[in-house]
User: Fold this.
Amino acid sequence: MPDRVCLALVHHPTVDRVGTVVTTAVTTLDLHDFCRLARTYGLGGVYATTPLTAQRDLVASLLDHWLTGRGGEANPCRRQALQGLRVVESIDEAARDVAGRWGDEPELVATSARGGGQRVSFDEGRRRLASAERPVLLVFGTGWGLAPEALARCRWTLEPIQGPGEYNHLSVRSAASIVVDRLFGR
Amino acid sequence: MPDRVCLALVHHPTVDRVGTVVTTAVTTLDLHDFCRLARTYGLGGVYATTPLTAQRDLVASLLDHWLTGRGGEANPCRRQALQGLRVVESIDEAARDVAGRWGDEPELVATSARGGGQRVSFDEGRRRLASAERPVLLVFGTGWGLAPEALARCRWTLEPIQGPGEYNHLSVRSAASIVVDRLFGR
Assistant:
């Protein structure tokens, strides 16, 4: 089942510190971390979504370096990870691509550092994903998180990762790593 | 107890792809991710270790930006996280600093993506740390991991994080996040 779960790293629509809907810039290190994570846990791949053509071109040139260029020659493990990356315009395009690969519309699952609403516990999420019949797109927001319209696009939302106190400002790289381990780790 | 556990992000002695002992360059994003992780899980702080003066100066100027400069004004959450960062020359200096803060030599615990030897399971590690009487320094290597001499300096080593297959090339940011969650998460 995990091989039909993909991660979506979303750069729009996300919110900034004050809640304005924005398009965040792609951080190339995120792409490496997400792809290495997906490959380690046997997931189906990673979608980087941004509506900005120049940003998608940036990702394409990064991919070129690692898949066919000198990066991949020097570091085959990194090439192997980045083979799982696709760059698309939107969450919808990612969902269509997943549907094309597995012949079924994916279930969209959101992640959020904010609680409230009908958040699903990690235990329950693990059970749901283990028995899911459709492919799954697990959606992560950059910046200060997914905009409400992106959250609303998802079927359900996982509970936030919480430490002992109030502070829970993990990077999206850390959050995705912990979420994937909790959902699919041994 | 977690408040007497610190993370050490080690840039020397580490190994490169072919096992040569090297000094890796500081990736400033690592410092953010480690500090945000430590703060979220209520740990005692983060030590960035590098023997290179110019690299320690780089970290100092980063800290200046976030602790007293415009970064911290614009993003107080980030300032709060980076308040936990100390930059030192070596693992030994980090251990001495921990000893100074809590009046007792820390127990050094290594992490590694490689198995073999007397690796300690996460369940057992969690038990050990929950009942540890001394402060703990949890040691992470950059590059291709800690050099043998750094591993040997530690009291015990946690088992690697493994997915379903052979591939386990997580970034140090991902690995540290998963390790901390497994050891101290709810």
User: Anything to note?
Assistant: The beta strands of chain B are 5-10, 14-15, 21-22, 45-49, 85-88, 107-110, 119-120, 136-141, 156-158. Chain B touches chain A through 38 residues (CB under 8 Å). The helical segments of chain B are 28-40, 53-67, 70-74, 76-82, 91-102, 122-130, 148-153, 172-184.
